């Protein structure tokens, strides 16, 4: 029996952690232990929301040092983060510009301008990526237009996890799954689209060669391998989603909710474009055909503003309230990064002639009901794309612990819902490292291991929970908001 100790660094937009996974080779048992957790949040620089890279690097080092100081042998390290954000470096490897956070408002008016100049259809058919105002394409366009004096100093562009790997190893690697979130990668070639880069007026040499995950990047402290994993956290989460069959869908539920299909070919037809479906890179030649949903960001902001300490109690209070008293479109741009989420929700409801939620529980109920409605809408769009109903929905990530939202999803989508594993992004990170270590063959084998190690919770439609007539009435009202 051999035990492999694997460090998975998983960074989200609100927190980060260093997790230690122990994998027993003969039994394929996986155990997870949280070694170090830390907050992540925007810092404000010259009126902009940015990331503190030095802080993130320091916290990662702290977590890795804790593992070594415990006396455990560490066999490999992998890092995953959110997508779209990037770092610009000079020839000496120094950061030469702020690392903007994707919710910063500098890109608010950029996307329409780029669409007008290049054509929406051209961009989509090249990249297969949904149109979001913070995609890297628009972030770079903002930099080119506003700060051209930086450009002659730049030699390298790295996504955030690639930069953190570089800091650990001194080796630059451009990982595929995160690169695809930029809307700069050609969906047909899996390489940077040189015409889009030329449109930005940037040299291709900045971007290097994209490599698929599952290999060694370099060494930390001269002896511990650092592996290239599916460094976009959603890509890692999908790897660990134990889908029941080829017609099943996943929902990665966290700060963002990402609902999609796992397919061997992208879908870039006009229907997909009009529904703003994205085709991001996965592993083993797969594509993540999905849609971004604003997710629990709204709820997290509510809890922060109202200083909520007991999340479970708030969810329970919300469950006792009547369903669908107020509905919002969670993907409306007014919820992307408002000064006050409470005021944004209340103003939205007032402007749509709805009951204005006042209490924290009423606001939470509004968020959960609205998210479940949006899940239904996206599930129908995905079913239309694959030409058959979705057989089941697998909710993974931290949001899979929200039993009210899970049940609402089962009822509104009229579908079997399976919740878990909670630590999907960490597990997918570990799975990629096990592939790089030649311990498992592929994604399919790892999903089987995940299902064996982490039991799932089943939710079915409960007719007594919400009546069909109420659901259909409120569904029509929700569709009118879009």
Count of strand segments: 21
Supply the helix-strand structural class.
alpha+beta
Amino-to-carboxy terminus distance: 56 Å
- Overall 3D geometry? globular
Radius of gyration: 22 Å
Largest sheet: 7 strands, mixed
Helical percentage: 25-40%
Description:
By secondary structure, the chain is α+β, with helices and mostly antiparallel strands. The protein has helices at 53-69, 110-118, 120-127, 136-146, 160-169, 176-179, 194-200, 233-239, 270-274, 297-305, 311-319, 341-351, 360-386, 403-413, 424-436, 443-453, 468-479; strands spanning 3-11, 15-24, 29-39, 43-45, 48-50, 76-80, 86-89, 156-159, 174-175, 185-186, 191-192, 210-211, 215-220, 224-228, 249-253, 257-263, 278-281, 287-293, 393-396, 417-419, 457-459. The strands form seven sheets. The chain has a seven-stranded mixed β-sheet, sandwiched between helices. A hairpin with a 5-residue loop joins strand 17 and strand 18 (287-293). Helix 2 packs across helix 3 (120-127). The radius of gyration is 22 Å and the shape is globular. The N and C termini lie far apart (56 Å).
What attributes does this structure have?
alpha+beta; 4-stranded mixed β-sheet; 7-stranded mixed β-sheet; single chain; 17 helices; 482 residues; globular; 21 strands
Short summary:
The protein is an alpha+beta fold and 482 residues long. It is 38% helix and 21% strand.
